[in-house]
Amino acid sequence: MTHKELESRLPHRDPMLLLGEAEVQEIDGEKVSVGRTTFRGDEWFLQGHFPGNPVVPGVIQCEMLAQNCCVLLMGDEEARGATPFYTSLDKVRFKRPVRPGDTVDLVCSITRARGPFRFATGTASVNGEVCCRADMSFALMHES
Fold first, then answer.
1. pTM
2. I need a surface site. Which of 10, 31, 40, 54 has the fewest CB within 10 A?
3. CA 75 to chain CA centroid, nearest Å
4. Given pLDDT bands bounded at 50, 70 and 90, which one contains residue 144?
5. Residues 117, 123, 67, CA angle at the centre, nearest 5°?
6. Cα–Cα distance measured from residue 80 to residue 86, given in angstroms and rounded to the nearest whole number
7. Contacts of residue 53, Cβ cutoff 8 Å, sequence gap at least 6
8. Which residue intervals of 56-144 are DSSP H helices?
9. CA distances from 12 to 18, 63, 114, 140 (A)
10. Each residue of 38-68: pLDDT tens digit?
11. Could you list the active site residues?
12. In what order do the strands lie in the sheet containing 103-114?
């Protein structure tokens, strides 16, 4: 899916929709979401992080992983019409900085479900080098 298609299916909107493209694939018998985005250097969060030495903030990298997980949730019947809210981030590790011009590849999988909660793991990398890893959980919240 392109950025435009993602915008029509995910609850995120610009400037917070951070995925350039994403699709669900099957790797080793497991459904995963494979996403990608390239940073141009003019993104709002790079303006002050850090002047003269721009680096994509870690929280933005974690948000990219979460949005990539949302692509998987689109195929989850219980998630239809719900907004997924982060409930936890665990074992987050940052291995290398992400800078303007970098293309970040994301791979995420849902590891388990329990009631309205979904648990996932994700990896972000640049040129095959891991920049961020995280375990995450989400609550599927339906409007009242």
1. 0.95
2. 40
3. 16
4. low
5. 50
6. 17
7. none
8. 58-73
9. 9, 11, 24, 15
10. 999 999 999 999 999 999 999 999 999 999 9
11. 49
12. 21-27, 30-38, 103-114, 117-126, 129-142, 82-94
